[in-house]
Each structure stands twice: as C-alpha cells, then as structure tokens.
Design a protein that fits this description.
By secondary structure, this protein is of the alpha+beta class. The protein is 19% helix and 49% strand. It has an 8-stranded antiparallel beta barrel. α1 packs across α4. The chain is globular. It starts with a helix and ends with a strand.
C-alpha cells in the first residue's frame, strides 16, 4: 500500500453531497421549474439557466472491488480536464427527504490508471481498495444539463434539469429526465423549502 493510500485511511471528516432528485415525466413542468425566480428566501441568479453537456464514465475492477467496498467511482469529462468523484453507496436522509452521502473529488486522467492521476484524497481512496488492478467501464451517462443557482443569506442551491442517456456496450439502453437540487453551501434546510414546492408537481426519487 502506498504512503498516500495509508494517509487516506486516517480518520477525517469527508465532504458530503446533499441533494434532492425528482423524475420529470412532463418536460414542460420541468422547464417551468427552471424559470421559477424564487423558492422562499432562495432567489434565482439574474442570468437564465446555463446549458452544459457532460459525459460520465462509471468504473470498477473486473471483480467489483470498489462496489463491494461501498463506493461508486465516476470520471467526468469537463472542458478543463477530467474529474474523478468517489461516492459512498450508503445514503442517509436529510432535510426535505434529500439524500446525503460522502463524495470525494480530485483531478484524474481519462485514459491513465489511477496510479498516474494527480495526488488527491479521491485517488488515495480508489487505490486503497483497487490497488494497481485495472479499472473497466461499467456504464456511461451522457447528460444535457440546464442549471441555475439560487441564493439566500443562509444557503446556495444549484437547480438542474438533466436529459440523460445511459450507454452500455456502445448502445443507448435508457433515456429519461431528472430535476436535481444540490446544496452548494449553507443550511440544508433550504432543500426542504424546494422539496415542498416541487413535490406538488414532480415525483421524488
């Protein structure tokens, strides 16, 4: 085990992801949500929703050691490079029925093995469990995301509407649309305010 991997085992408070997700069957309803200017004290930024394209590849070893350890590993292609996210598969409930789980991120490379990625806590955690075993692609998620920030004195939340394609073995196997509200900073109670509004028209997942 590398010194970096050993360091990753030391007890520390890891970053967490706190988010709400809703299934969107009515695209007009989803678009209307993105045009909403206020959720209680949360006010939308002045600019309209921005659109970005993303491609996420989920990876594991051939024997699924990362999944067995309780983690999902995602490589996200960005204009600025490749980002690795290591997410806990264990979730706990947060305000408004949101889910909360550990998420560690760091720089990576789209083709190089983890040993060649820049040092980060995310890299250390992958190597702690997978070592030098090669990672293979499990599934690819392509998203067209429209996103908008909402702010109050207590919190900042990013709202996004995602058109999603699931690709396995080079074939699109599923298409669907989701609406997500993720706490960027501040009090998670802000998500409860959004949930109370969205649950009137969308299905919480």
């Amino acid at each position: 085990m590398t010194r970096e991997a050993k360091a990753g085992k030391k007890a520390r408070k890891r970053p967490v992801e706190i988010e709400l997700k809703f299934r969107v069957d009515d695209l007009a309803a989803g678009a209307a949500v993105m045009d909403t200017e206020r959720f209680g004290a949360l006010a939308a930024e002045a600019d309209p929703a921005r659109e970005v394209l993303m491609e996420d590849r989920y990876l594991d070893t051939t024997d699924g050691v990362l999944t067995h350890a309780g983690y999902a590993v995602r490589l996200r292609a960005l204009e600025t490079g490749t980002l690795v996210s290591v997410k806990s598969l264990t979730r706990v409930e947060a305000a408004g029925g949101a889910s909360k789980r550990e998420e560690i991120e760091g720089p990576a490379d789209a083709v190089a093995p983890p040993a060649d990625w820049p040092a980060s806590d995310a890299r250390a955690l992958v190597m702690e469990h997978a070592g030098d075993a090669p990672l293979q692609e499990l599934v690819t998620i392509r998203q067209r995301r429209r996103k908008r920030l909402y702010r109050s004195d207590a919190a900042t939340v990013e709202l996004s509407l995602d058109d999603i394609e699931v690709v396995a073995d080079g074939e699109v196997v599923e298409r669907f649309t989701e609406l997500e509200a993720e706490l960027v900073s501040g009090d998670e109670a802000a998500l409860a305010v959004i949930a109370a509004v969205l649950e009137l028209s969308l299905i919480h997942i």
